[in-house]
Amino acid sequence: MIVSGTMLNLASLLTVQSQWQRRREREMEGIKHRTVEVNGIKMHIAEKGHGPVVLFLHGFPELWYSWRQQIVALSALGYHAVAPDLRGYGDTEAPTSVSSYTAFHIVGDLVALIDSLGVDQVFLVAHDWGALIAWYFCMFRPHRIKAYVCLSVPFLRRHPNIKTVDGMRAMYGDDYYICRFQEPGKMEAEMAEVGANYVLKNILTTRKPGPPIFPKGEYGTGFNPDMSDTLPPWLSQQDLDYYVSKFEKTGFTGGLNYYRNMNLNWELTAPWSGGKIKVPVKFITGELDMVYTSLNMKEYIHSGGFKEDVPNLEEVIVQKGVAHFNNQETPEEISNHIYHFIKKFQCDSKH
């Protein structure tokens, strides 16, 4: 009877898992995929739903897939959810030149994408490097953005005299991860030694507050010295396998090239130095986020600097016990935050 009971419990568990898997597959099946010509490259986008456009921008090392649950949720609420693989990622083209990954190139891709959707304005939702690109978007073309929900990375005020990476190196030294990412080919070789599966699992599962400092000359334990053999509840093996399958094909160079243009972006954006972001913004981060816990971010966010640079910053949310990938760790909460913020601006949205 014990064996029978155990087998029955196992069968019940497998049935529940199977039902959940089928439901998830049905939801994912509703997401359509296509390729759009933008700014001289072919861009892969995932989309679902009809209505005002919500444009989702992923970070490093991620893909459109990072927004899979928000795409399903927002499309069900009457929005056209669109998530591209950004330049250099996944099924979008990856130009070979390092200098093809400036903020101007990537914002240019997004403006062309919005034009291809036939709309004047979008709601913008972005995380990590996507958030940085979104800030540039708000700076360059604010009239195209109705409102912006920013995850993890607040606006980074441009220092008038110190280049971005130089300032980070002065603060944390040469082994700070962004400094270690600068030399073309070097970090790729270190990542290749441990493999894409290790790199992605290591980064996606980290809960270690910043700043991430790498060992010299190797990837080593990377972002996550406490990496567990088991995945967290919010990241299934199927999810990890999807990321790995794409990055094994593309490598990490496209994503790393964003970091390699940080100093060039500093130079290129000199005309906007001291400018304000006028788009309405809601900011959400986890209290364990490696960005929130680095670079004097807490002081900037909570002591008035952020609000000074972004006058229409309406709300700051710090999620207790949540780490960097908050859109995946707390998908329902993030989807609710997005919906309750953007619906306030929907009445006069052009779509």
UniProtKB/TrEMBL annotation:
Top EC category: hydrolase
Catalytic reaction equation(s): an epoxide + H2O = an ethanediol; (24S)-24,25-epoxycucurbitadienol + H2O = (24R)-24,25-dihydroxycucurbitadienol
Keywords: Hydrolase
Family named by the database record: Belongs to the AB hydrolase superfamily. Epoxide hydrolase family.
Reported function: Epoxide hydrolase involved in the biosynthesis of cucurbitacin and mogroside tetracyclic triterpene natural products (e.g. siamenoside I and mogrosides IV, V and VI). Cucurbitacins have cytotoxic properties and exhibit deterrent taste as a defense barrier against herbivores. Mogrosides are nonsugar highly oxygenated compounds used as high-intensity zero-calorie sweeteners; they also possess pharmacological properties such as regulating immunity, lowering blood sugar and lipid levels, protecting the liver, and acting as antioxidants and antitumor agents.
Quaternary structure, from the entry: Homodimer.
Name this polypeptide is given: soluble epoxide hydrolase
